[in-house]
Amino acid sequence: MAENHSVVVGIDGSPNSERAFEVALSVAENRQWALRLVGAYVYPFVPEDQFVRIADSYRREAAQRVEEVLERFSARARDAGVEVSTRTAEGDAGGLLVEESRSAELAVVGKRGRNRFAGRFLGSVSGKLAAHAHCPTLVVPEKWEVEESGALFAPQQERPEGPQSEHEPSTLMAESERSQPQRRRFENVKEEHNFDSQVVAGVDVGQTSTEIVLRAAEAAQMTRLPLTLVSAAPLNTDVYWYPNPVQHNLEIPKIRGKYTDHLKELSEQVSAEHPQLQVHWQFFDSTPAGVLSEASRTAALVVIGTRGHGGFAGLLLGSVSQTVLNRAVAPVLVVPTKKHRR
Known about the structure:
Blueprint (H helix, E strand, L loop, with lengths): L5 E5 L4 H17 L2 E8 L9 H29 L4 E7 L2 H8 L5 E5 L13 H9 L4 E4 L30 E5 L23 E4 L6 H15 L3 E6 L12 H29 L5 E7 L2 H8 L5 E5 L13 H9 L4 E4 L7
Parallel strand pairs: 1-2, 1-4, 2-3, 4-5, 7-8, 7-10, 8-9, 10-11
Antiparallel strand pairs: 5-11, 6-9
Helix pairs in contact: 3-4, 7-8
């Protein structure tokens, strides 16, 4: 057992937490880490004249129900040979998981199930944990069930506008050479957006990209999957405006070069540290959130940071991270940057 290393996972007995547990257990087995199961209950509003009579009995019953759920999952972990502990507490589940993340290597939580408003609401627990965790957070979405068909169709992103919303334009501008891995083809996915069975890392030109990419490389190494580093910037006059078209045409290649040079440098660093890992990079003319959300339709895992610079700027999670988490249909690993950590 790796000393003091553990995975913490939020458990409430729902199908979402069931999937989160399965992923957390798999990581714990693979890395030989301990597993910590966390369950919480909230004390409801009770009229003052009934408070004394109800308070104690409610707390006992609520705690017992949570403990029973945790024990069921604990038994499965013990059967798998994983060291496991539990914590039951009254209060906000998101806050409790953030607290537990201080001493964990990874926190895992399920994402609220898909519905027409799913793009608007990540979920209070998963959203709070991803924004404030002191360790990387893996957000596991609802499992997709597809009808049997002769053709493969990737699931659509979870958009607040609905499934018929306008598709965001995205053009592949540059990429590294690579040997083409064996990939499935999807009828509803363009080839340049097909990241089937790959780990995809969102890369910005900020210094924090290195930490994000190295975490993504570890995940790819553990799962024996190829790693693709992805950057995007909207190279149009609405974003990068210059007084005349000539200046615009001269400056755009410089902007693109900043991204591609950074991608090349990070790819070389990953290859040096993980020589057996297949590493590829791509640069898109598009929004970072749009490209990474689209990648989640086929990727095995998408890795993002809590905040960055330029295309990845924002508060708390950052505008890109928040959008990707809301819309993603693949697991998303959120890596807190050094600037964000407390």
